[in-house]
Amino acid sequence: MAEISTTIVNGGAVTGAYRNSFNLKGTQPLPDTEKAGSSFAEMVREAATDAARTMREADAVARSGLADGATTQEVVQATIALESTVKVAVAMRDKLVAAYQEIMRMPI
Prior knowledge:
- This is Flagellar hook-basal body complex protein FliE.
- It is a single chain.
- By secondary structure, the protein is an all-alpha fold.
- The protein has helices at residues 11-25, 40-66, 72-105.
- It has a domain at 40-108.
- Helix content is 70%, strand content 0%.
- Helix 1 (11-25) packs parallel to helix 3 and helix 2 (40-66) packs antiparallel against helix 3 (72-105).
- The longest helix is centred in the C-terminal third of the chain and has 34 residues, at 72-105.
């Protein structure tokens, strides 16, 4: 008989998403001296790269699931990670657009 898991979400995925949220919110602990020179543009580029990687991984797991190479739980976990990534990316885009619009309204 197959073992039934009591949770849908992988603890590692939740931990990874939580860690990524610190990068997106800018509330991460003080960076090491190696990253002390990181600019806002580098942070945004890194977040976008991580989001693209998560999307590619979720797509690969979904394709693998269609070919019976991944379990249903793995597909669901990848889909949840993808959904979370898309929500964060959209929220981040909205904040950037709002900030740009606010700057454009400033008098010269």
